[in-house]
Amino acid sequence: MRILVTGGNGQVGWELTRTLSALGEVVSCDRERADLSMPQTLKALVAGVAPDVLVNAAAYTAVDKAEEDTTSAALVNAQAVGVLAEAARNAGALFVHYSTDYVFDGAKSGPYVESDPVTPLSAYGRTKLDGERAVAAAGGDWLVFRTSWVYGPRGRNFLRTMLRLAAQREQLSVVSDQIGAPTSARAIAQWTAHAVRQSLAERASGTFASGLFHLTASGSTSWHGFATQIVDAARRALGDDAILARRVEPIPASRYPTPARRPANSLLDNTAFERRFGLWRQPWDAAMQDVLDDVFERMGELR
Questions:
Q1: Distance CA 260, CA 128 (A)
Q2: φ, ψ (nearest 5 deg) of residue 264
Q3: What is the pTM of this model?
Q4: What pLDDT shows up at residue 207?
Q5: Which residues carry out catalysis?
Q6: Angle at 162 between CA 158 and CA 165, to 5 degrees
Q7: How far is it, in rounded angstroms, from Cα 96 to Cα 218?
Q8: Fewer CB within 10 Å, N- or C-terminus of the chain?
Q9: 91-128: string of b/e by CB count within 10 Å (b at 16+)?
Q10: Alpha carbon distance 209, 2 (integer Å)
Q11: Which residues does the chain have with pLDDT short of 50?
């Protein structure tokens, strides 16, 4: 079996390349080989690889920049996604794609389910929603996973930013009135591999059904709570010589204005995913500690 992964050098794509190798041959493409800002090049790529599964982990994720560069965001997050979905259908491949909590406005008091109204607040959210719709319109066999607050030991993300700032500053100020479920790229890759394995069996038996599912770690916290856990874990592992931050100050989002509006509530209900794939999801703080353990181990090796 051959699995094509786009966005192979990104946080999720890198983890997918490792995890999906247990299922078959993985062809991992970085932006140089699979440039989603050039959708017209993607059909030939997919036809040449002839995958059994196509997992799209590439995306335009610069949320604030998307407000002024909507054209590029739409090319990558919507138009190219539609091209990939059609190419997967033509190849007879299962297509897997990732979306985001940003398709919601965050006004709901509890976790969002897949059928809740979608009202994105930002250009990023709108283009990701358009990508979801492009996948469904293409037909074929597909899975779309909405996730949130993604982080990992690689790339630009909240966890790595907090570790860097905690080593430089005695106090950090972090938004406390936005809630969600921090979700590690490693966990997303593991859950995806499980879902792909089951979906392939369903396709073979003629019982597969395409669908949209929410997929995040269990539990919830605020950005401030996430940051506090990161700093506390870093101090325990590295000591006061490495971690200067003595206080993580909670602040409202209004004190940290950004070009793109963020949902105040990013919680996603994962019941549909659990029922379909029968998979237990690790709590966000336990998954975070697993990632930090790897980060701290590497730091120790570099000393």
A1: 14
A2: -70, -30
A3: 0.94
A4: 97
A5: 124
A6: 135
A7: 22
A8: C
A9: bebbbbbbbbbbbbbbeeeebbebebebebbbbbbbbb
A10: 21
A11: 301-303
Q: Say if CB 159 and CB 262 are below 8 A apart.
A: no
Looking at domain 2-156+183-219+266-282, its CATH architecture is 3-Layer(aba) Sandwich (3.40)
Q: Which pLDDT score is estimated for 301?
A: 42
Query: Quick one: pLDDT at residue 302?
Result: 38
Other C-beta atoms within 10 Å of 269: how many?
Answer: 15
Spatial separation of the C-alpha atoms in residues 2 and 237, rounded to whole Å: 40
Q: How many CB atoms lie within 10 A of CB 241?
A: 7
Tens-place pLDDT, residues 25-40: 999 999 999 999 999 9
Token readout for 84 is 């990939």
3-class SS letters over the chain: CEEEEECCCCHHHHHHHHHHHHCCEEEEECCCCCCCCCHHHHHHHHHHHCCCEEEECCCCCCCCHHHCCHHHHHHHHHHHHHHHHHHHHHHCCEEEEEEEHHHCCCCCCCCECCCCCCCCCCHHHHHHHHHHHHHHHHCCCEEEEEECCEECCCCCCHHHHHHHHHCCCCEEEEECCCEECCEEHHHHHHHHHHHHHHHHHHHHHCCCCCEEEECCCECCEEHHHHHHHHHHHHHHHHCCCCCCCCEEEEECHHHCCCCCCCCCECCECCHHHHHHHCCCCCEHHHHHHHHHHHHHHHHHHHC
Q: Beta strands 179-180 and 221-222: pairing type? A: antiparallel
Beta carbons within 10 angstroms of residue 14's beta carbon: 23
Delimit the domains of the chain by residue range.
Answer: 2-156+183-219+266-282
